[in-house]
Design brief:
By secondary structure, the protein is mostly helical. It has helices at about 5-30, 45-70, 70-80, 80-110, 115-120, 120-145, 150-165, 180-195. It is a multi-pass membrane protein.
C-alpha cells in the first residue's frame, strides 16, 4: 500500500464512517451535546468581525463546491465564456480571502481574550487551525494553479463520485501538485473531526424558531420588596 492509496482511498472512508456513525450517535444518545456553545455573552466585537465573514464566506464556497460536484457540466458551460470564468474565479478567491480573515479573527479571539480562552477546548483550536489550512491551501491553489473551477470538475468531481459510489479511483489525484493534494486531504481530516467538534450543530435545522413565540430575556431582575 502506497501513500496515495492510504491518504486518498483508505482515509476518506475512515472519515466518512466517523462522520456518519459518531454524528448519528450524538444525535440519538447525546442530543443535548449538539450545540454551538456560543461565547457571544463573553465577547461580542471580535466575534462579529470574525463570525460574519467566516460563516458567509465558507457557506458560499461550499455551495460552489457542491455545484461542481452535482452539476459539473453546468460549471463547464458557464466557464466556456472567458469573462464568466474570470468572474467566477475572482468571486471564489475573494470569498476565500474574506473567510480566511474571519477565521484569523476567531482564532486570535480564542487565544487572546481571557474569558473566551477559559471556555475554549483543544478541539475548538484544532478545528480553527484545520479550517485555516483548508482556506489557505484553497487560496494557494486559486493563485498558483489558476482556473480550478475549469479543471476541478474534470479531476476532483470524478474522484469524489468514485469514493461515494464505492468505486474508488485514487489514481486521479496521484499526480496533482502537493498543495492541491493537501487541500483535498485536509477536507477529509475536517470531515473526520467534524462529529467530535461543535461544528456538528450545523446538522440541526431550527425550523421551530420560525413559529415559536418571542422570548423575553432579562439580564438582571430586581425584586421589589414590600415596604413595612
Amino acid at each position: 500500500m502506497n501513500w496515495n492509496t492510504l491518504l486518498f482511498l483508505v482515509f476518506p472512508y475512515v472519515a466518512l464512517v466517523l462522520a456518519v456513525t459518531v454524528t448519528v450517535y450524538r444525535a440519538v444518545y447525546r442530543p443535548f451535546s449538539i450545540s454551538a456553545l456560543s461565547s457571544q455573552l463573553l465577547e461580542r466585537k471580535q466575534l462579529y468581525w470574525g463570525s460574519i465573514p467566516f460563516h458567509w464566506g465558507v457557506v458560499l464556497i461550499l455551495l460552489g463546491h457542491l455545484l461542481a460536484l452535482l452539476v459539473p457540466r453546468s460549471i463547464l458551460w458557464w466557464n466556456a465564456v472567458p469573462a464568466r470564468l474570470y468572474l467566477l474565479e475572482a468571486t471564489g478567491l475573494a470569498l476565500a480571502l474574506w473567510a480566511t480573515l474571519g477565521v484569523l479573527v476567531l482564532l486570535y479571539r480564542r487565544v487572546t481574550h481571557p474569558r473566551v480562552r477559559a471556555v475554549t477546548t483543544p478541539m475548538d483550536l484544532v478545528v480553527l487551525v484545520l479550517l485555516l489550512v483548508q482556506l489557505l491551501s484553497g487560496v494557494a491553489v486559486a493563485t498558483v494553479y489558476r482556473f480550478g473551477s475549469y479543471w476541478g470538475p474534470e479531476v476532483f468531481t470524478p474522484y469524489l463520485w468514485s469514493i461515494l459510489t464505492l468505486t474508488p479511483r485514487p489514481e486521479l489525484v496521484q499526480d496533482l501538485p502537493w498543495v492541491v493534494q493537501l487541500h483535498a486531504f485536509n477536507f477529509f481530516v475536517l470531515l473526520a473531526v467534524f462529529p467530535f467538534s461543535r461544528l456538528v450543530h450545523i446538522i440541526t435545522v431550527p425550523l421551530g424558531y420560525l413559529i415559536r413565540p418571542w422570548q423575553v430575556v432579562i439580564w438582571v431582575r430586581r425584586t421589589r420588596f414590600p415596604q413595612v
